[in-house]
Write a structure and sequence with these properties.
Strand content: under 5%
Order of helices and strands: HHHHHHH
Structural class: mainly alpha
Mean pLDDT: 92
Radius of gyration: 16 Å
Number of domains: 1
Low-confidence stretches: none
Number of helices: 7
Number of strands: 0
Shape: globular
Distance between the termini: 46 Å
C-alpha cells in the first residue's frame, strides 16, 4: 500500500506552505506594500526560499540512496535548483517578471525530477506523494502565473 509518511503533518505543512503565496498574491492584487518591498517581490522571495528547500530535499534523498547514477543526477539537480533560485532573486531586483519566470520553471523542474526518479526517490509512497506534490506544484505555478498577469 502506497502512503505518505506522517500524512497529517506532511499535508498540513505542505498546504500551510501555500499560505505565504496566497498572502503575497492578495498583496499584489490589493497593491499593499510590505515595507520598502512590493508584494510581488515578497512573493518572489518566498518562492526562491521554497525552491531552495525543495532542492535541499533532493540533496538529502540523493545522500540516502547511495552511490548511483540517480544520486549523482539528484546532487547535480539540487545544486542547479539552488543556483536557479538565486538567479531568480537576483533578476527579481530589476527584472521581476524574469525572476518569477525562472522560479516558475524551477518548480516545474522539481516536479519533473521527482516524477522521473519516483521509483528510487519515493520508495513506497510514490504515487500518493507524487499526487500531493502535483497539487502543491500546480497551485504554486498558478500563483506565479497570476502574479505575472497582475504585474503586467
Amino acid at each position: 500500500m502506497e502512503s505518505i509518511k506522517n500524512p497529517l503533518l506532511t499535508n498540513s505543512l505542505g498546504f500551510a506552505g501555500l499560505l505565504p503565496f496566497f498572502a503575497a498574491a492578495w498583496g499584489v492584487y490589493a497593491n499593499v506594500p510590505f515595507g520598502e518591498r512590493s508584494a510581488s517581490f515578497l512573493f518572489l522571495s518566498y518562492s526562491v526560499v521554497i525552491l531552495s528547500f525543495l532542492g535541499g530535499a533532493l540533496w538529502g534523498k540523493a545522500k540516502e540512496i547511495g552511490e548511483s547514477a540517480v544520486s549523482r543526477f539528484l546532487l547535480i539537480v539540487s545544486n542547479i535548483l539552488a543556483l536557479t533560485a538565486w538567479s531568480a532573486m537576483l533578476l527579481g531586483e530589476a527584472y521581476l517578471s524574469a525572476g518569477l519566470a525562472v522560479s516558475l520553471i524551477g518548480f516545474i523542474s522539481v516536479y519533473l525530477v521527482e516524477h522521473k526518479t519516483q521509483a528510487i526517490l519515493l520508495d513506497d509512497m510514490g504515487s500518493a506523494y507524487l499526487r500531493f506534490r502535483l497539487t502543491l506544484t500546480t497551485v504554486v505555478c498558478f500563483a506565479h502565473l497570476l502574479i505575472l498577469a497582475m504585474i503586467h
